[in-house]
């Protein structure tokens, strides 16, 4: 094991700056998968123990790329985490703690379950669903939805980078999709977790790119 004094952010920037690193690249049919833009994770003013902000413009970026994909007739997906009243659907994941801030106590239609009011969801066309586990793919309708829409590229946004974003990105690659993580569009509680996981995603499972590259690709698809 290599040991260095560099921070997680420095290591990420070093890997990202390597011009020899091959990319999976974008395909022709993208889906934007926006992971858990719910108040439990996006509103530190309401839920300081569980919410986080990395890039202050994260939601504006997500709204913009989602709108661009929507104009192209390509899928935009929004997920949330929630559990039934007795948390019996949280499985072993819900057994470590049991406080008002615990994961399994995100109940349907609660303030923690509610989408952040800043996100722009078009419920007439966007696909919105709840999930129980980290990945947006695990035991959800997402795999069949992407197949039906002939998607070849999944662009992942949301939080947390070290949790549900990472799990979704790994599953996306495992399902055979070119997987893109837009750096300014993902967030985590701590800088070290955030950049360590971006580094690992970049090394193995996804292209981690600036959101400007996503903007440019969507603009190119629009002609």
Automatic annotation (TrEMBL):
Ranges for domain Isochorismatase-like come to 31-212
Keywords of this entry: Hydrolase
Q: Known SUPFAM superfamilies for this protein?
A: Isochorismatase-like hydrolases
Q: Hydrolase as a keyword?
A: yes
Natural source organism: Niveispirillum cyanobacteriorum
Top-rank lineage group of the source organism: Bacteria
The identity of this protein, by name, is: N-carbamoylsarcosine amidohydrolase
Q: Which InterPro entries match?
A: Isochorismatase-like_dom, Isochorismatase-like_hydrls, Isochorismatase-like_sf
Q: Keyword Hydrolase: yes or no? A: yes
| Single Gene Ontology MF annotation | hydrolase activity
